[in-house]
Design goal:
alpha/beta; elongated; 348 residues
Length: 348
């Protein structure tokens, strides 16, 4: 990127080559913020359309002005400290915390050295030992939107008619995929119209877990109604939410979790466990239902209560879309983060 050094106000590092939630967040936000401020990313693994500069340039920017170094990982906080104290670069240090656990002594020390901290949810903020600005994630509500013709989209993707219930993301115990499958087996036995979709990837460590789930489905004789689909690319994801009647987020624990937002933006109600930020995302009884983690019976009743009532399904779906547009637009997240940037640049 050929942005003059005098115009660069914020550097967002991404020090990880593999695609991750952090990388995806940077890729979503930086192009939007770059329209209003001199915001660039740096590091490997970034899409070509994300405004970025080489890491060496970020480390040698002139000291003629203060800039913000926006870290989201321990390694990036450490590098920010090195740039400021060893190389004497003029960086204000900002960290975004998404984890919901007690931090190690090392991480606490790094966070204590930051000039400001953002937390991605109120629950995340409760694990910090210093004040933080809570800024919930947002999503692209133009890309994730209700489909013009759901039936035609289902036909294009080779999906059957029925009450489609989906669970998307990594297939592993942490994500509660087994709880979803067990609940779906029970619901499918009660309601012949229910079709389930499990979509995602199991890494090598979790492939045995996935094989066990497939075996349970086969043993129940539901191989044609509980469908396993491979992970798709980011640009294909909206269509897979748009075909659903209901989305389930069955996690045992979670940092934030964007999938409920993506589903609700497509006017799909959500059943989610009370973990991570889900209690801040899903309005219980209005845009979906919140349930206890690992409780198969609760999940069955919550799913049945929504999909068995077409009027309820429509009302909740419309409420979910309205709430996403009001509270979770990606532009809102970008604006709130830029307010923090401006405060830091003004010396606040």
């Amino acid at each position: 990127m050929n942005l003059p050094a005098s115009k660069i106000e914020v550097v967002a590092p991404n020090l990880k080559r593999r695609l991750s939630g952090v990388t995806a967040t940077i890729a979503r936000l930086v192009p939007i913020m770059a329209r209003e401020m001199g915001v660039v990313a740096t590091g490997p693994g970034l899409p070509a359309d994300v405004p970025h500069i080489p890491l060496m340039r970020a480390a040698t920017l002139p000291r003629s002005r203060w800039r913000v170094w926006h870290a989201r990982r321990n390694t990036e906080m450490l590098l920010g400290l090195f740039l400021r104290h060893a190389l004497r670069r003029h960086y204000r240090l900002l960290f975004t915390s998404a984890s919901q656990r007690h931090h190690s002594r090392y991480t606490k020390w790094l966070i204590s050295k930051m000039d400001h901290v953002i937390a991605t949810s109120a629950r995340t903020a409760s694990y910090l030992e210093r004040p933080a600005t809570v800024i919930l994630h947002g999503i692209d509500t133009e890309k994730f939107a209700p489909p013009p013709d759901r039936a035609a989209l289902r036909a294009r993707l080779g999906l059957p008619d029925g009450r489609l219930i989906g669970c998307y993301g990594r297939i592993r115990r942490q994500k509660g995929t087994d709880v979803f499958v067990n609940a779906l087996i029970e619901l499918a036995r009660r309601d012949p119209q229910v079709i389930g979709i499990v979509m995602g990837r199991a890494t090598e460590k979790h492939q045995g877990f996935e094989r066990d789930l497939r075996a349970r489905v086969a043993e129940a004789g539901l191989g044609g109604r509980i469908l396993f689909r491979p992970e798709v690319t980011v640009d294909e994801m909206p269509a897979w939410y748009q075909v659903l009647d209901l989305f389930v987020a069955p996690q045992r624990w979670e940092g934030f979790g964007l999938t409920p937002l993506e589903a609700m933006a497509c006017a799909v109600p959500v059943v989610a466990t009370r973990v991570g930020a889900f209690e801040e995302l899903v309005k219980d009884g209005e845009t979906g239902h919140l349930i206890t983690p690992e409780k198969v019976d609760e999940m069955v009743e919550a799913m049945a209560g929504i999909v068995s009532d077409p009027a309820q399904l429509r009302i909740m779906g419309e409420a979910a879309r309205t709430d996403m547009e009001a509270r979770f637009r990606l532009e809102r997240e970008a604006d709130e983060i830029m307010d923090v940037y401006r405060g830091l640049l003004d010396g606040e």
